[in-house]
Design a protein that fits this description.
Helix content: 55-70%
Distance between the termini: 46 Å
Number of strands: 0
Strand content: under 5%
Shape: globular
Radius of gyration: 14 Å
Largest sheet: none
Order of helices and strands: HHHH
Length: 83
């Protein structure tokens, strides 16, 4: 299975809320090296509980199609203090 086949398989499993979260993470990467979980919900326009539920689900979707064992993801809880 090629990398393209894996990417297409993961892409097809994503739901609209998953894309909202991924876009929010991408936007916040301008300010953070590691985007804290508690800042994702605002640009994603989702409740914090939804983000907390979907982040591990996104990780599982990606790693299951790649044939990898899911890895532990550590999410930073610190706020950025830059103005």
């Amino acid at each position: 299975m090629s990398a393209v086949d894996i990417a297409v398989g993961v892409y097809r499993k994503l739901e609209p809320e998953d894309f909202q979260i991924l876009r929010a993470i991408e936007i916040q990467m301008k300010r953070y090296e590691y985007v804290p979980e508690d800042v994702i919900h605002k640009p994603a326009n989702l409740p914090p509980q939804e983000v907390a539920y979907r982040l591990p689900t996104l990780r599982k979707k990606a790693s299951s199609d790649a044939g990898e064992e899911p890895t532990q993801v550590t999410v930073s809880q610190q706020q950025d203090t830059t103005p």
